[in-house]
Amino acid sequence: AQSVTQLGSHVSVSEGALVLLRCNYSSSVPPYLFWYVQYPNQGLQLLLKYTTGATLVKGINGFEAEFKKSETSFHLTKPSAHMSDAAEYLCAVSERGFQKLVFGTGTRLLVSP
Amino acid sequence: DAGVTQSPTHLIKTRGQQVTLRCSPKSGHDTVSWYQQALGQGPQFIFQYYEEEERQRGNFPDRFSGHQFPNYSSELNVNALLLGDSALYLCASSRETDTQYFGPGTRLTVL
Prior knowledge:
The complex is a heterodimer of chains A (113) and B (111).
Chain A: E1 3-5, E2 10-14, E3 19-21, E4 24-26, E5 31-38, E6 44-50, E7 56-58, E8 64-68, E9 73-78, E10 87-95, E11 102-103, E12 107-112
Parallel strand pairs in A: 2-12
Antiparallel strand pairs in A: 1-4, 3-9, 5-6, 5-10, 7-8, 8-9, 10-11, 10-12
Chain B: E1 5-7, E2 10-13, E3 19-24, E4 31-37, E5 44-50, E6 53-57, E7 64-68, E8 74-78, E9 87-94, E10 101-102, E11 106-110
Parallel strand pairs in B: 2-11
Antiparallel strand pairs in B: 1-3, 3-8, 4-5, 4-9, 5-6, 7-8, 9-10, 9-11
């Protein structure tokens, strides 16, 4: 069975600081990996995804993530946080050829001025 | 191009009642998945519909059922509501095994 662990239910950064949100996964088959962002009382918006090929994936709003098979990780980073980045971030995994997404419990990013 | 739409936005029911939630997929998408997101948790997969058939199902009781129509829209039905069914219900659409795009969700409160 697949699973996702997101370390830290809350992460606080200052505006302009580096953002690092951690995601580790477990999968018996090569995974597809996703990061979604969720603003209050809204649905999920796709930030980026890894399927095959280049392990460093760039997404929207300046975010990127690196797939590290040896560490079973897919951490999300952004060089400089903006106030508008404050939201819930969800990491998810799925098996290739299937679409059931298995989500982590999420990390709330707080950005202070 | 309209994205995934869901109705209603909010819903309040009492224990034991039945509820139907609706989802219209993004244009060009033929697959609809439903997720339940309890407060403070990540979404949990309920089931997925493709070509009007349930293709995959998560660990949810038979009280949760669904349907997909020829125009690819979908309904989620929940019978005999429990307090624990209170959650945000998310619909996601895709083209077969491609990326899922989520709607804004329906907030269900069971009293």
